[in-house]
Design goal:
Elements lengths: L10 E5 L2 E5 L5 E5 H11 L18 E8 L6 E6 L6 E5 L4 E5 H17 L2 H16 L5 H18 L1 H8 L5
Antiparallel strand pairs: 1-2, 2-3, 3-7, 4-5, 5-6, 6-7
């Protein structure tokens, strides 16, 4: 396969222990959806609870058709711009792959980390309400609700460490 940016031949490199297609010339990376999730999980296990939502809720992101072509399926890449961030990722909706460089991967990681730590408890409760609504309408999987509940737990423990200590000191049954 060839780089969609500069047309150099890809090389297979290890990134965080995962083999990915990398351009030796422009340092771009072609990563399948599942590989990107695994890289984020290796970077920060807490982020494993976050669904990157590149495909689940893509209508919530500003998306424009880019001028790059997916090296795997020859379909167009769409550029997704995450709201209120510098994150812009080229996404192929056909083969569920992304094209980004190492700097943008770091920017994505920082965005997800900020998203994890900045959401208010009220915001999580609102998200739970939306997920329950979508779950009851058959639009969502139960896993999505579990993700939000886990994030709510992290947020509560971050804001109220005494609750975490209390729970950790309860007698084991």
């Amino acid at each position: 396969m060839r780089c969609p940016h500069c047309f150099s031949e890809f090389i297979c490199e290890s990134h965080k222990g995962f083999k990915i297609q990398t351009c030796p010339n422009c340092q771009g990376m072609f990563i399948l959806q599942e590989e990107l999730k695994q890289i984020e999980k290796a970077e920060d296990p807490n982020l494993a609870w976050l669904d990157l939502e590149l495909w689940r809720h893509h209508h919530q992101y500003e998306a424009i058709q880019g001028n790059l072509t997916c090296p795997s399926c020859q379909g167009p890449f769409h550029i997704l711009h995450y709201p209120n961030s510098e994150v812009k990722i080229s996404v192929c909706h056909a083969c569920r792959a992304v094209w980004l460089n190492k700097k943008m991967l770091e920017t994505l990681h920082l965005y997800l980390e900020k998203k994890l730590t900045s959401e208010t408890i009220t915001g999580y409760l609102k998200d739970i309400g939306h997920e329950l609504h979508d779950l009851l309408k058959g639009k969502e999987h139960i896993k999505s609700l579990g993700i939000i509940l886990k994030l709510l737990q992290y947020r509560i423990f971050a804001e109220f460490p005494s609750i975490k200590n209390l729970i950790q000191n309860l007698p084991k049954v």
